[in-house]
Amino acid sequence: MAKGIAATRQLAKRQLTWIRNWPYAIKIIDANLEDKIKLKAIQHYFLSFVR
After folding, report:
1. In this structure, which of 9, 10, 28, 51 has its CB flanked by the most CB atoms within 10 Å?
2. Are 48 and 13 spatial neighbours (Cβ–Cβ below 8 Å)?
3. Burial classification of residue 29, based on how many CB atoms lie within 10 Å of its CB (0-12 exposed, 13-18 middle, 19 or more buried)
4. In this predicted model, what pLDDT tens digit does every residue of 1-51 receive, in sequence order?
């Protein structure tokens, strides 16, 4: 089970890295404040596993 948890954390970390590198990610999010808030909540959730 520990391997599965570690793999999930690694995947979440990679996904955040990919999103940060998307050139249009912020522009799309800024178009809708609700989506921006949801993304921040998701990032906070995943980062709590990485720390």
Report:
1. 9
2. no
3. middle
4. 788 888 888 888 888 788 777 766 655 545 667 777 788 888 888 887 776
